[in-house]
Predict the 3D structure of the following.
Amino acid sequence: METIEFIIGKYNYWVYIILMMIGFYAMIGKRNLVKKLMGMNIFQWAIILYYVSIASKKGGATIPIIQNGHGEVTHAIEAAQYLNPLPHVLMLTAIVVGVSTTGVALALIIMIYRRFHTLEEDEIIDMLRATKK
Amino acid sequence: MKSLAFIVTVITGVLLIYATADFPDWGDPSSPASLHVSPRYIEKTVEETGVPNMVTSVLADYRGYDTLFETTVIFTAGITAVMLIRRPRK
């Protein structure tokens, strides 16, 4: 019984760790630059999903919008009624930074392709060595 | 080289999964993340900002400068992409 409870309590972290390791392997193991960039994006999204999962609260908590919150709010607001809003906000910021880095990386990849006519990292390194000698 | 990358990945993943044993359960209402800073924002947000949506109030009011200079990040990224792609070809 205890093992089942342990698995139910933690399996969300394991899903994100598996996703993160897929991205990590793509970043360090693949040779194609576009595949590396896709790995970086998967890694980022694993971290973002992990933070969003931190925000959840079981036991009747709803989305972080105050119910009947317009105008004069007289009823008491309890923290256990609403999900934690801070991870959502911080991940909104992280998504913006991720989009910016992806855009700059894609532009760099286009420039690398124009110069070397390939995106395989080992071929690019061979060409750079050949021009040096 | 690829097998080395795979071994490094597996070792890192096993270490991270081993570390989750110390984490709070998923959705636990008494986890440290939902007990320490966030209750203050949830309880005071309507009183201080008048916005019922807490994500909006934190994003645009408490962290307004962060969001303002977030646009600088996007602007810099856009300018960088344009400068990289529109270089004159030799």
